[in-house]
Amino acid sequence: VVGCKIVHINTIPTVDAGELSFFEAIHDVAFEIKRIYYISKVPEGTRRGFHAHKKLKQLLFCPYGRIQLVLENEKGREEIELSDPSIGVMIEEPTWREMLWIQKDSVLCVAASDFYDPNDYIRNYEEFKKYLDELGR
Ligand code: TYD
C-alpha cells in the first residue's frame, strides 16, 4: 500500500481455541516502541484520523473487527481493509490517514515510535500536501 508496508504479525493458531499474535521490539518492529494506544467503542460508520505525522512511525493493527484505512503519501493514495489480527500496516513516512469503522466496536491498535507530541501532527489536508511538496524539494 503506497509507501506503507503490510506486515504479517506472528500468529499461533490453537485448534478450536483461537489464535495468539505477538510482536517484539527490536526483533519484529524496526523502531523503538515508546507508546501503545488503541481506539475502541466506536460506532459503525464513524470516521476518524484526518491527520498525518511528520516524524512518528507507527504499526497499525486491528485485533477485532473491520476497519477501512485510507492512506496517502508521496507515493499515492490507497485503501486497505484491516480485519485480520495477524496483519498490520507499518507507516514510516508522512502519511495522511482516514479510518472508517465498517463494523461497530472494531478496535484499532497502534504501536508508535515516540511519546504523544501535538507538534508532530498535521491536521489540515492542504497543509499536508504543502508539507510533502516542501519535502520533495
Ligand atoms: P487523535 O489523534 O486526534 O485521534 P483520531 O485521529 O483517531 O481522531 O487523538 C484524539 C485525542 O487524544 C486528542 O485530543 C489527542 C489525544 N491523544 C493523547 O493525549 N495521547 C495519545 O497518545 C493520542 C494518540 C491521542
UniProtKB/TrEMBL annotation:
Biological source species: Coprococcus intestinihominis
Name of the featured protein: GNAT family N-acetyltransferase
Residues of the full protein shown: 173 to 309 of 309
Stretches of the chain forming a coiled coil according to its record: none
